[in-house]
Amino acid sequence: MSESFAHSTLSPALRQAAHGVDVPEDPWSGFARRERRHRRTRLIRAAMAAVVAVTLVGVQTNVVPLPGWAPGIAVAAAPTALLDAPPRGTLAGDHAWLDTLRARISTDPPIGTDNPLGGWIPDGIWKVADRDRIRLLYGSDQPGQRVALVAVPLRSGLLTREMLVWYVGPAGAGAQQMRYGGHSEGVDSPVMTLMQAESDRGGFAVVVGPAESTVMISGDPRYTPKGTLEYQNLARADGSGVGFAVLPPAPLRSEPVVRVSRGNQVLFLGGLGGGPYAGIDPTGPEMDALLTAARRGARGTPLDDANLRSYIELALLDSRLPAAGTTARVRWSGREHGHAAALLTVQPADGGVIAYAVHGDERTGWWTDLRLLLPAKGVDQRPIGWRIRADDGTRTPTDQVRVIAPPDAARVTVTAGSAPPATVTLDASNAGTIRIPPDRPATLTAYSKDGGVLGTTPLPPVEADMAGLPGDSPATRVTP
């Protein structure tokens, strides 16, 4: 085939095939075009992010105001048990009084006396969000006092919270005369308490709990000779779930205890702060006399003076007993987990006996291993035992039980469930240990030399919560 023939024959076919092939354009020009588009998009996004960031900073620092209808992020739990209850007290229907109070509430520190209702948010970041949403939860007149508990919505930029604030004034006070009295700490507690007292003028205490609850404000406790705990109830009911107490001008001997319950359920149990209290003077003559008498008849390794004083102070503070008129005794002292340890008792005049097992020292701290209210009759003939807790930070009860026999006991047995009695091996101080499964109840029995029964004591369960007084729960008493 000649070259001219091949060219004339193949050229049209090749040109036709070439037109059918999709040849891409120059890749660099396409990349450059796409990069310009992406760069323009990134610039727009960066500018928008900067605007949003500046706006958020302004909103969060309260420089840029946020509309009241805008949603916020709640940062603290609100006490729903109180917020869901209807307004209580004689001021609940006084709308004009509440409107005036709403207008005056501020989170800013007061200057002079212009606004004595401010100053309860010291950092000044939180502001009142919507005054129309300020609600009265409780407000009433009491002897010499007008007291109000108010829910105040707060906002700091996008963050929101609801604070419960106390305001107080003289009886019959207008909103202009009310003063800030205290506020909640952002915890979802079902109870709000307020106590104001002065040693020369007395004072008051008020407790607001959930609707349909019962409030008790106890004064000094009474440990009866039968081994029971009785409270002196200072509270007067002021509507459902509210208690008010008038306090005497003399210093209280100890901190009052608040108990709020609904039926058999205890909703709140704790101290009522606000003082002043007479307290315990560890250097007073009554304390010195009590410590001297406490050593009489003590068994085991003697406690040093510092630990003895600390242990008895702890027992008096926990039981709310004064040094004057109280008898203390060291029943046994030794070692626990390498620390000083003791079983001691405190007893008010003509009252029951409270046993405390304590170990530790000032360097490492103190641990209370047992609190048990006992009847006064026959207490010196009772064996006393408690579970030893793990020394690993968890304080988990172990299967080891420390047993302290009475002075006249020849032997002590432990009966756990349906198992036959097991004898406790006692040392020279009449103390010993025995293994009992943690979940098994047991009874300790002490016998005299002639085989007669001196006394029996149940092994108490380990306390999960030591908020109350000894004798307040079945775990801390032997009397039903």
Characterization of this structure:
This protein is of the alpha+beta class and 480 residues long. 19% of the residues lie in helices and 34% in strands. It is built from six helices and 26 strands. The chain has helices at 3-19, 27-60, 80-83, 95-104, 285-294, 305-319, and strands at 73-74, 127-128, 135-142, 145-156, 159-169, 179-183, 192-198, 202-208, 214-218, 222-223, 229-230, 236-237, 242-247, 257-262, 265-271, 326-336, 339-348, 353-361, 365-374, 384-389, 397-404, 411-416, 422-423, 431-435, 442-447, 453-458. The strands form seven sheets. Strands 1, 2, 3, 4, 5 and 6 form a six-stranded mixed β-sheet that branches. The protein has a four-stranded antiparallel β-sheet with strand order 7-8-13-12, with no helix packed on it. A hairpin with a 4-residue loop joins strand 17 and strand 18. It is globular.
Low-confidence stretches: 1-10, 50-64
Beta-strand content bin: 25-35%
Q: What is the radius of gyration?
A: 37 Å
**Largest sheet properties:** 6 strands, mixed
SSE map:
Elements: H1 3-19, H2 27-60, E1 73-74, H3 80-83, H4 95-104, E2 127-128, E3 135-142, E4 145-156, E5 159-169, E6 179-183, E7 192-198, E8 202-208, E9 214-218, E10 222-223, E11 229-230, E12 236-237, E13 242-247, E14 257-262, E15 265-271, H5 285-294, H6 305-319, E16 326-336, E17 339-348, E18 353-361, E19 365-374, E20 384-389, E21 397-404, E22 411-416, E23 422-423, E24 431-435, E25 442-447, E26 453-458
Parallel strand pairs: 1-5
Antiparallel strand pairs: 2-4, 3-4, 4-5, 5-6, 7-8, 8-13, 9-14, 10-11, 12-13, 14-15, 16-17, 17-18, 18-19, 20-21, 21-24, 22-23, 22-25, 25-26
